[in-house]
Amino acid sequence: MLCAPQGVGKTTLAHQVIRARIGLQDSVLGLPVARGKRVLLLSMDRPAQARRAANRIFGKDDRKLLDDRLVVWEGPPPYDMAKHTDILTAMCEAAEADTVVIDSLKDAAIGLSEDEVGAGYNRARQKAIAAGVQVLELHHLTKRGPNGAAPNDLAGVYGSVWLTSGTGSVILLWGEAGDPVVNFRHLKQPMNELGPFNVIHDHASGVSSVQNTADLIELARYGGPEGLSAARAAEAIFDTKTPTAAQKEKARRRLDKLVGSGQLVKHDGPTKTSPATYYLGLARAS
What we know:
The structure is a single chain. By secondary structure, the chain is α/β, with parallel strands linked by helices. It has two domains: 2-210, P-loop containing nucleotide triphosphate hydrolases (Rossmann fold, 3-Layer(aba) Sandwich); 216-285, Arc Repressor Mutant, subunit A (Orthogonal Bundle). It is 34% helix and 21% strand. The protein contains ten helices and 14 strands. The protein has helices at 10-21, 47-58, 63-69, 87-95, 115-130, 161-165, 216-223, 230-238, 245-260, 282-285, and strands spanning 2-3, 27-28, 31-32, 39-43, 70-74, 99-103, 134-139, 170-174, 181-188, 197-202, 207-210, 228-229, 264-267, 277-280. A hairpin with a 6-residue loop joins β8 (170-174) and β9 (181-188). α8 (230-238) crosses α9 (245-260). This is AAA family ATPase. InterPro entries: P-loop_NTPase.
């Protein structure tokens, strides 16, 4: 699930995932994407606007290839997916698609804030997944975080808890409508956390990229004999002078992963309560 306020690039990012799944590019935001067979795009939220956005990124691609590997449905689905839980899988089967992009979730079922509706839609989603379909859903938020900041948990996602409970990942894009730079946060992870980092949207081309992120190896190098602590790493990763305990723990896990790969060396503090310090591994230091 990719959730965000209006106008910050959900559809733009989804189009790039589509291009990768149909073999027109290898990665999105610098991350590899496995190629699929065919994508079904349910363009239900302002399809005319979405079509204009698609022309920016698909405009120069081979039309025959697009016709073969991308199927587009514009407008609402034939039935409410929460009430007719087989319809999503049936639409994917009819399109012979192994990937479906739902733009957006509010148009797939009516009354998503109700648990009965959320549970019904989740049943439809799980049936599609069980049939071997990869599901990407674009969704909206219900509120901002404290003092107008970005939501920092799943409570900010609009609708029933069943909507997020049934997902593998929930990603938040945060910014103001039309911003060229927005923030990417991984609110729910099946395994390892991705980000946070900033995403730069090139609206003219429809291509997005990751803004330079904190390089823990370089931070350890700059730390010299004092090394790098998890607290200092968290400050750089999360762009804050007062990282939370959870942010420090996430930074520590990243540092320990670099220790496991031999890129950093960990020195425990003199006491059990003293923070560990991280230094460049021998190969990096030479």
